[in-house]
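hiii so my PI (J.) wants the whole complex modelled not just the main chain, which honestly fair. so below is everything: two entries, each one labled with what it is. i double checked the lines twice but i was tired so who knows lol
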Amino acid sequence: MRQSVPSFICRIAISGEAGDGIMSAGDILMKAAAREGFDVAVAKSFPSNIRGGYSRSLVTIAEKPVVSPIGDCAVICALSSNAFLRDTPCLSPRTLVLVETNAHADGVCRDRFDRLIAAGLTVFSVPVLRLARETAGNSVVKSTVALGILGGLLALGSASLRSATAERFGEKGAELIELNRIALDAGFRWVRRHIDRKHRLPVPARRAGYARKERFVLEGNQAVALGAIAAGCTFFASYPITPATAVGEALSHLMPACGGIAYQAEDEIAALGAAIGASFTGAKAMTATSGPGLSLMQEFLGYASMAELPVVVVDVQRAGPSTGMPTNHGQEDLLAAIFGSHGETQRIVIAPATVEECFSATVTAFNCAERYQCPVIVLSDGTLGMTGKTVAKSALKSPRVVNRKVFIGKDDKRWLRYRLTDSGISPLTIPGLSSVTYRATGIEHNEDATPAATPSERCAQNAKRCNKLRHIETEFDNPVLWDLEPANDAPLDAGICAWGLTALIAREAVVSLRKEGFRIAAVYPRLLFPVCIEAFNRWADLCELQIVVEANVTGQFCSLLRMNTRARPRSLTVSRGEPFTPSEITACIRSIITGERAG
Amino acid sequence: MPRYIPHDYRSPLRPTWCKGCSFYNVLAALTGVLAEKQIDPHRLNVISGIGCSSRMTLYLNTFGMHTIHGRALPVAVGSRLANPDLPVIVAAGDGDFFSIGIGHFVHAARKNFDMTVICLDNRMYAMTKNQASPTSCVGFRGTLTPWGKTSVPLNVLEFAIACDATFVARTVAGLQRHMQEMIGLGLGHRGFSFIEVIAPCRTFDRAATLASLSSRVVDINRENRHDPVDKKAALAAAVKALDYDASDDAPVHIGVFRESAVPTFEEQIANIKKTHKKKSSFSSILKKYSL
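here's the output for the full assembly
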């Protein structure tokens, strides 16, 4: 019998204070490992300060495509006491801990250091700061020393780390590149001298046959920007807001070459207003924001629904309410995205779970907006938006693109802007093409776009707007991603549902639970609203115990399922500004299932 | 024979304005200018906010967007950027532009978008039945200020000039020819043209009549030889123009207060686009993110 060798996967956390170079270190490590043929993801946490505050890059290096960018670490490398304390509770005894010598010198940190050793963990005190000063003569390169140490531990090629470092600091001059090279070498040397081979975690040999050209390194927000371009977006407007700004940054660079424009508006209201004005005029238009911006956009969202104008709004969610935690994780805007704004309309809400889906979901969002003439919201989140990942070229292949049907003709009976049709979709035109004109309005109107207040006209138009999305699921290849057990008569232990980034994390938990022998029916919706009623009814019929996992405190998707489907799920939530980890989900679901069994 | 007469620009919809409202005159001036310039109705976007004056859009048969309160300008900006060949007229009231929407005004003016912005200034909220607006006088008794408005009126001309609007003019709804001239100049100007039309509300403001306002006008360009190119002089002229209803015989200053030639936002964007003459394919764009 052939024993299957588990494929290599290793998670490394580099943490310190904002301004320590933690983000650069994560990016460099990702690039170097990716160039050695691995699939890599780097999840970033940082405070909304320029200097100071806990900051961490979580790098996952794997032979197979990375499932979750979040999870338990094999190596923790903490450069500050703050980071050391934050990263070292509840560690598995197999974790290798590296901590800057000065960061565990006294007090609580010293206690923590001693306790980790007592618990049997392998802990190294690393003089990163001293090495940086002694070799490069500058403490500024301390994160590069740490990078060298991690490179040595993983036995990554020093050449790929060197070139990735040089590229990162290339613009800042030869002197800095040289300092970083010295720092890297110091790190490598330190590992050779001080860390026994048995503690090292060498990556497997370089994979043969991988083509560097076939792969890209993208963050979620950049993938959204590329999705927009691929969908034919030519107008983007936004206002700076963490963690969505990177969508606009990418599009500002890309748009001129695509014949489009990325416009910095004076606020989020103006950003969506400009996108709506551009859409009316014929452009495929988008804006991107985060929670506070979404709040400001509510009135214009209602206008786009009423005037039936296509527009895509990307909400890169952050923990709220109000200013909340600008750089922290949360999936708290779901119900605001669906039901926000006064009055009633149907709005399409899509949630990508992976960096690749950030691309495809944005394309789908444009397709839906253009076909159904309504606003579509893409619900991403800060952690997903800032997660960098190796992406295969095949995931970015030219997608199916829907262009709006434009009415070109004479002003005769066929032209009624809000004509009542079976599909609920009416003819639309844009200025300048033919002699037909109309006035878009947020006032209730009749088929002719004329303000109208009779009960019958109101009912007809309202019904049209509410019903036009009834076949929306057909726009999606997989509006709900199913992950079922092979069919047999054994009863299922639980049904698990998760959306957005949490779906990705939950997938890893489902794998672990199945290894433990639990039978799980997992569903991961991409189309969140309108709710895929039949799919969830089927899911509810399959498994008696249903659990929705999400990163908010009130269980928003869970309540949505209770409102719309036969499912009566339990809610498993976290709302601490950090995503779930796969092992947390595994443990919680295990205990729910065993609790159920015990009755 | 001209192709279009003013009536060709009217939609079939009958205005909901009160009988004798000064806004009918503005509508007539607008259709008059459009006919003068023979603009195709389907090659024009008229954008408005919410209020009596913002209904203007619905009474024209051009393309139009009757948007939400205070937000006509951002929508107009999107229209201008998406299709710079499509001229845009924005029409709204003093409350729409200068209370709820004043932030947008600053930036649309400052960035010099090429659009004609007409403020139908009746110095109050009329659709909601008589409340004070930013341009109402001190002491104005509205339903929400029954003891009189306590703040000074906003001088919209001075404000527009300070925001670097590149064309600022004022006219009165009773002067058909002058109104048409000012709107025509605004349409012809390359950049942000702001035209204040003094257009009192007949229903809630019995004191200000078009006849009295029109009889007191002083054309600052002809009679005062005001030079709109000089910003300081423009500001000074604007300051003097505020108190036209201080007394029954106070002069009503009209004309072009400010005019300057500055590249428009759209022109500058076109220049940026020119540097990328060759449109990039998606795969060449992807290269930026290659490993």
